[in-house]
Amino acid sequence: MYTEKIEEFQRYFKSHSEYKVYPGHSSKVHSVGWSCDGRRLASGSFDKSVCIHVLQKDTISKEIVFKGHGGSVDQLCWHQTNPNLLSTASGDKTVRIWDTRQSKSVAVIPTKGENINITWAPNGETIAVGNKEDLVTFIDTKTNKIKTEEQYAFEVNEISWNNTSDLFFLTNGQGCIHILSYPDLELQHILNAHPGTCICIEFDPTGKYFATGSADALVSLWDINELACKKVFTRMDWPVRTISFSHDGQLLASASEDLIIDIGFTETGDKIADISVDAATFTVAWHPSQYLLAYACDDKDTYDRKRDAGTLKVWGFPSDS
């Protein structure tokens, strides 16, 4: 049923397997993400800065560097319908909201701990941020004030809303996914997803699936309506740190400390392509309308192996460009 589509993708990426490297930071890049219109690519780094790049055809150029955080920028996420707004979570115990039309942050929200995970509800109304002490803070984006805080008794890893913003998902250190109603945050289900720590979670743009990556080196694909596991991707050998669905939900990229980024066909798990890397990969993000994958690894400087390269990369350009 899917054989032709799989072969078509495999052929496409044979001729679109070029990657380009973009310097942006003086230290390792923790997080990358595209704006909803696909024009901008943001990266957040251990060097406390956020870098915005602009995509034009097959070239990407640096537009602006946002400074202000007093600690590492551990995760970033864009507003899902406003291409100018970006939020960042930092170890400096703040969340910042940035507008690409301005040179400084438009809001600074103090929080109780060192923040490591951030997610913006698809309806744009709320930002949730998780910290190292497993406290999840919900911020009202109209007032930029904290609405509520929830302290959990287990290790909270990545957090996310579903595409309709009425369910909130937590991945935890026991390999479970906690599904809560939103906004009342009542527990609806606990899925025993993995034997190892559940590290990352991602929703497919079409609303059919979500996927989780785990310390057991597996990626599991879940039917969002049935809450049933449909597929397990098994090509990694190391804990899966980061995953991303393509804009049409047909491809799933996953990365770890393995020296490849795996691109699989969502419905069957078949391998479409892989990207060779030289170091552990922290973050991957598909473009919102093209088959371009942004990613960042723990690369070292070519001339000084003690220094981080601070680069981000984009793969999927035509191989003859």
UniProtKB/TrEMBL annotation:
Q: Cite the entry's keywords alphabetically.
A: Repeat, WD repeat
N-terminal signal peptide: none
Per its UniProt record, what SUPFAM superfamilies does this chain match?
Answer: WD40 repeat-like
The organism's taxonomy opens as:
Eukaryota, Metazoa, Ecdysozoa, Arthropoda, Hexapoda
InterPro entries membership: Tex1/THOC3 (IPR040132), WD40/YVTN_repeat-like_dom_sf (IPR015943), WD40_PAC1 (IPR020472), WD40_repeat_CS (IPR019775), WD40_repeat_dom_sf (IPR036322), WD40_rpt (IPR001680)
Q: Which Gene3D superfamilies match?
A: YVTN repeat-like/Quinoprotein amine dehydrogenase
The name this protein carries in UniProt is: THO complex subunit 3 isoform X2
Can you say where the WD repeats lie in this chain?
A: 22-50, 66-108, 191-225
Organism, scientific name: Nicrophorus vespilloides
Say which family it is in: Belongs to the THOC3 family.
Q: Quick check: keyword Flavoprotein in the entry?
A: no
